[in-house]
Design a protein that fits this description.
50% of the residues lie in helices and 16% in strands. By secondary structure, the chain is of the alpha+beta class. Helix 4 crosses helix 8.
C-alpha cells in the first residue's frame, strides 16, 4: 500500500525514505485509520529525515519507522478528542487495494475495515505496539526503541493488545469465491430493489454503520436487523440525491466490497463481514472528506 497523494519532493530511489515509503505509509495508515493523516505524517517524516544529521543515523529504516510512529502517536492522541464529538458513527477511511494472490489473505486480515475499527478501541500506545509487532513483525526490543519504553513494558502492551483484538475481532468465515457470489447477489438485489432478496443475504444479527461525518445525510446511529438494514439501504438508493449513482465491485482494504459511483467518481464505499453465508456487519462510508483513498489511480 502506498501513499495516496505524494506531497514530498522527488528523491533518488536510493534515498532510504523512498526505499521504505511503502512501510512508512502502511504503518501510519494502520495506526491512524485515515489516509489524510497518514499522508501528513509522511510529509512531516520527510522533513525530519532531510533535516537530520545523516552521519549519526546508523539504521535509516529504524530511524524512519520511529519517526513515523511517534508522529502518529501524537496525532492519534489529539484525534481521540476530536472523534468524541464526531457526528454519527466514525469509520476509517477506505482505500482501494490490489494485493497479489500471495498477499491477499494477509492484507485482508490486517488492513480490513473491520480490523481498523477494532484497532480504534486500543490506546494509542497499544495500537502502535500491535501494528509494529503483529502486522510488521518487529521484535519487542526494536519496538521498545521506537516508542522509548522498556522491553518488558512492550511485551505487556503487546500481550494486552493482542488479547483485546482477538476478543473483539468480528467473526467471519467466507473465502474469496463465496464473497464474490454473495457480492453479486447483493448487487442484483440492490439494483433490482428486491427487499426480500436483500434480506435473505443478511444475517439475523446484521448491523449497519453509516459515516457521513455531518457532511452528508447519514444514519446517526447503527441500524440493526435484516428488515431495517435492507429497507434503509434500498431507501437510500431510491432517493433523488442518489440518481445517477450505481454500485460496482472493488477491492477495498484487501477485501471485495462495493463502491458507490457517480459516473466514475466514488461517492461512497460499502465493506462487510460474512459469516455462515450471510452478511453480518455493513460499514457504509459516505463522508466526502474520507474518500480520497478511493480516487482512480490512488490505490495500491
Amino acid at each position: 500500500m502506498t501513499p495516496m497523494r505524494d506531497h514530498t519532493p522527488p528523491e533518488s530511489e536510493s534515498d532510504p525514505f523512498v526505499e521504505h515509503r511503502r512501510l512508512l505509509f502502511a504503518t501510519a495508515y494502520r495506526m491512524l485509520g485515515t489516509v489524510t493523516d497518514a499522508e501528513d505524517v509522511l510529509q512531516d517524516t520527510w522533513i525530519t529525515w532531510h533535516g537530520a544529521d545523516r552521519s549519526s543515523v546508523r539504521n535509516p529504516r529504524a530511524y524512519l519507522v520511529r519517526t513515523v510512529v511517534n508522529l502518529a502517536l501524537n496525532r492519534l492522541t489529539s484525534a481521540r478528542a476530536t472523534r468524541e464529538t464526531y457526528v454519527g458513527p466514525w469509520l476509517p477511511e477506505p482505500v482501494l487495494t490490489e494485493p497479489s494472490a500471495a498477499e491477499e489473505a494477509e492484507m485482508a486480515d490486517n488492513v480490513s475495515t473491520a480490523m481498523l475499527v477494532v484497532l480504534e478501541t486500543l490506546t494509542p500506545v497499544e495500537r502502535a505496539v500491535f501494528v509494529l509487532r503483529e502486522v510488521f513483525g518487529f521484535s519487542h526490543a526494536e519496538i521498545a526503541g521506537f516508542i522509548e519504553r522498556p522491553e518488558a513494558t512492550v511485551r505487556q502492551l503487546a500481550h494486552r493488545a493482542r488479547a483485546h483484538v482477538q476478543a473483539r475481532r468480528p467473526r467471519c468465515d467466507s473465502d474469496a469465491a463465496e464473497r464474490r457470489e454473495i457480492t453479486e447477489k447483493f448487487l442484483a438485489a440492490s439494483h433490482g430493489g428486491d427487499v426480500n432478496a436483500l434480506m435473505e443475504l443478511l444475517a439475523p444479527e446484521v448491523t449497519l454503520w453509516n459515516d457521513g461525518g455531518g457532511k452528508i445525510t447519514a444514519a446517526r446511529r447503527p441500524l440493526y436487523g435484516p428488515d431495517h438494514v435492507a429497507r434503509w439501504l434500498l431507501g437510500v438508493m431510491a432517493k433523488p440525491v442518489a440518481a445517477g449513482t450505481h454500485l460496482a465491485p472493488a477491492t477495498i482494504n484487501g477485501e471485495l466490497g462495493l463502491l458507490v459511483l457517480f459516473g466514475e467518481m466514488p461517492v461512497g464505499a460499502l465493506t462487510y463481514d460474512i459469516l455462515d453465508g450471510r452478511i453480518l456487519n455493513v460499514r457504509f462510508q459516505v463522508n466526502p472528506d474520507k474518500l480520497i483513498g478511493l480516487l482512480p489511480g490512488t490505490g495500491q
